[in-house]
């Protein structure tokens, strides 16, 4: 009997390992603020707000119909992905449904993975406001029932399979279908209140960078992982910013809600030389519509370049001096930028001859003709009020 029980456990573990995916986190929302500007409203039918670290959707007594709220992500369903959310609900009345939306185009076109207060789950497709069951309501013991019950819903696409989980228990599988749009979010129906603690999305990425750099010879010039401060990075602690090094990060907490700040090291390179910069940075908190990234410049002529990304999924390339700014590539939406707080973005800049290429998370997002400058310094830059943890910065001669 013990042998059979052990074999049963091993089979379960093997099943979970086969279905587990090691995908990078590309979107993370924990509702510590509403910097991403989720829908909020308070009307006769519903009150929706971000409060107490939750996204709260409260249907009011006597209100009719369902309410949805969603955010357009950088995931379109063409590659493998996982989305998960933790949702607490309280209800009154005979029936209430709540859950997770994916592939959302608008309020009339989306897919939904819902739970009910009766302990059922259901998978729906909504096309032009007409609902079709992909999986009719069915009881499952994994669904936690009762007021204030918390359920974790997860949808996982692997190849052509789309799998559904409740509280880490696999409950249903179907064929993956094309998205209406790139939105993910929440659904609430009946007389109930739901509180979402988080929504996280992981997804497979294309790796153009590795292909482009496969046969390129690199000579390390700067290799900083912030395990110490042997490089003598500058620390500031005043009303405008607080910077420090600990736990393998350069912590850059810019407090002022205007302009930019940077810190840099002297690593000279003449303007005829090829180079590569690589930066890894995690956004902790603060403004989502302003950038963070890498800066390089000539401190003699005061000529600067920077390459930054924003938590809303945009990137930008600037060239500037003390009197003027050239937007080489103004803010551009980009699927490859990981969105929200608590996610890491990797940036690469590669100059070869007259061409310069910009990569986000190993995908090339832009290339152009490079107007060279002598480089005296390379460093880290943050715009407006943001806390960024820089994980590493590398500088190669090519």
Strand content: over 45%
Can you tell me the CATH class of the largest domain? Mainly Beta
- Could you tell me the number of beta strands? 30
Poorly predicted parts:
1-19
Named CATH topology of the largest domain:
Jelly Rolls
Walk me through this protein's architecture.
- There is one protein chain.
- The protein folds into two domains: 19-203, Sandwich (Jelly Rolls), CATH 2.60.120.560; 208-397, Jelly Rolls (Sandwich), CATH 2.60.120.
- A hairpin with a 2-residue loop joins strand 17 and strand 18 (249-254).
- The chain has helices spanning 2-19, 208-212; strands at 25-29, 41-42, 46-51, 54-59, 67-72, 81-91, 97-106, 109-116, 120-127, 130-139, 149-158, 161-166, 169-175, 183-188, 192-203, 219-224, 241-246, 249-254, 260-269, 275-286, 292-298, 303-310, 314-320, 325-333, 339-340, 344-352, 355-360, 363-369, 375-383, 386-397.
- Strands 1, 2, 3, 4, 6, 11, 12, 13, 15 and 25 form a ten-stranded mixed β-sheet that branches. Strands 16, 17, 18, 20, 26, 27, 28 and 30 form an eight-stranded antiparallel β-sheet that branches. It has a six-stranded antiparallel β-sheet with strand order 5-14-7-8-9-10, with no helix packed on it.
- The protein contains two helices and 30 strands.
- The chain has 398 residues and is mainly beta.
- Mean pLDDT is 93; it is low at 1-19.
Name the descriptors:
398 residues, mainly beta, Jelly Rolls, 2 domains, ten-stranded mixed β-sheet, eight-stranded antiparallel β-sheet, elongated, disordered N terminus
């Amino acid at each position: 009997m013990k042998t059979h029980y052990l074999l049963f456990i091993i089979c379960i573990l093997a099943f979970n390992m086969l279905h587990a995916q090691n995908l990078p986190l590309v979107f993370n929302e924990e509702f510590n603020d509403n910097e991403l500007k989720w829908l909020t409203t308070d009307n006769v039918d519903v009150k929706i707000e971000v409060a107490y670290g939750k996204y709260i959707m409260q249907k009011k007594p006597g209100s009719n119909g369902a309410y949805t709220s969603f955010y357009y992500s950088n995931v379109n369903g063409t590659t493998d992905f996982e989305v998960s959310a933790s949702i607490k609900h309280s209800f009154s009345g005979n029936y209430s449904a709540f859950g997770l939306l994916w592939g959302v185009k608008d309020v009339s076109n989306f897919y939904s993975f819902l739970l009910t207060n009766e302990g059922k789950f259901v998978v729906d497709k909504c096309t032009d406001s007409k609902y079709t069951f992909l999986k009719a309501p069915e009881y499952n013991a994994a669904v936690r029932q009762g007021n204030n019950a918390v359920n974790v819903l997860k949808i996982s696409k692997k190849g052509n399979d789309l799998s559904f989980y409740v509280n880490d228990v696999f409950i249903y599988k179907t064929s993956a279908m094309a998205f209406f749009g790139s939105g993910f979010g929440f659904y609430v129906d009946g007389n109930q209140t739901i509180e979402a603690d988080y929504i996280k999305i992981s997804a497979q990425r294309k790796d153009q960078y590795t292909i482009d750099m496969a046969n390129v010879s690199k000579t390390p010039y700067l290799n900083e992982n912030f395990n110490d401060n042997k490089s003598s990075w500058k620390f500031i602690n005043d009303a405008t910013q607080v910077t420090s090094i600990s736990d393998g990060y350069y912590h850059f907490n810019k407090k002022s809600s205007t302009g930019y700040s940077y810190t840099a090291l002297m690593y000279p390179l003449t303007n005829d030389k090829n180079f590569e910069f690589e930066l890894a940075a995690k956004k902790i908190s603060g403004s989502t519509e302003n950038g963070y990234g890498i800066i390089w410049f000539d401190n003699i002529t005061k000529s600067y370049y920077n390459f930054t990304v924003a938590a809303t999924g945009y990137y930008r390339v600037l060239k500037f001096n003390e009197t003027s700014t050239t937007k080489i590539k103004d803010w551009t939406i980009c699927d490859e930028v990981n969105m929200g707080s608590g996610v890491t973005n990797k940036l690469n800049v590669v100059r070869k001859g007259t061409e310069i290429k910009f990569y986000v998370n190993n995908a090339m997002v832009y290339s152009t003709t490079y107007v060279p400058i002598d480089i005296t310094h390379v460093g880290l830059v943050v715009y407006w009020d943001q806390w960024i943890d820089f994980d590493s910065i590398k500088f190669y001669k090519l």
